[in-house]
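Friendly challenge for the regulars: who can give me the structure tokens for this chain first? No prize, just bragging rights.
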Amino acid sequence: MQPDSVDVDEPLAVGVPPAPHDASGERVPTRDLAGLAPPPRPARRWTPGRVVAAPGALDHPHGRRIVGRVEALGIEVERLRANRLIGVRGETERETYARAKSTMAIVVSPPSRRRLQPIAPSADWRVDLAEGCPAHCQYCYLAGSLSGPPVTRVYADLDEILDGLAGYAGRGTVTSRDARRAEEGTTFEASCYTDPLALEHLTGSWRRAVEHFAGWDAPVQLRWTTKYDDVGTFVGLAHAGRTRVRFSVNCLPVSTRFEGGTSPVPARLAALRRLALDGYPVGLTIAPIIALPDWRTHYGELLGMVAAAVDGVPGLDLTAELITHRFTPGSREVLLGWYPRTRLEMDEARRSRKHGKFGAVKFVYPRETMTELRSWFTAELAAQVPSCRILYWT
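First reply, four minutes later:
Bragging rights claimed.
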């Protein structure tokens, strides 16, 4: 193996997080990436600086479709002779990660990603259509899980991935067997390791997934969440109500300070309204909930924005997933290396130590704080957005 190479045929994220927003993976070296992330600003469509196609990717119709979309945007697609990507690693870690963050690889999904894993409490199954994200969130929950430079990988074998989902219908344990969420059917989470709207203009993968679920005559639902607002290609699409699009939102002090390169929260909520008016089930992923000073005021303003965004939507189907901020020792080390001047609070002395499902240590808010946060959000959502159903709190 050449030292200056990345195996694009290997998964980007190592291991399976026990929940959609749990960090995992402790043994990760610190990386000094100060100044790499752009400041928060209105998001533009991501234009990767380099796009490569692994050899097997072009054997798949969707791989060729992705190449066509990318080249139509005026971006050259480099055909690799092998699954080794040369030229990503720089002289410093900062240079390496800067190059990786601007690179997209069209690859065939590894076998481990085609064997679906449970993804409680969000959904029955996690299905990956891509890995990697161009956003720069300073609290990134997957920071401790990444293996190697974060080259974004998009999967060329989408048709095969979608065809393989039928064997999982009715077999889940989160919504398939939970009476409170039975109307959702078997649920498939398609945004665990990526942000769909950051990549959709390059791949078209999630539009095809929406169409696939619309034509699937079974009690099933596709789910994905995003911090972007580029929903134009989904409005007017036949979706049969079998795709729930959730928008990850936060109060303005968090979103404007810690979510670099994403769409502003008001734009995300406007996009939520567009999809809701088009008949989509929609949702809020309020994450990470941070107990910053005067958090009641800030989150109260957020819920007021939500209420205004969904006002007057006929037949509104709106859910909320409430996820408090947590970190592991490994993810904290990585994030402080990436953003050494971050103002994000990650003080272990102010947190409670908790062992996750797979034994990983994570630091969460103390019980008193968690109880106060949960009680407030439950009451305020009921008061300001009474039509919203809370799916879970964690």
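The first helix runs from residue 61 to 72. The chain has a mean pLDDT of 88. Your move, everyone else.
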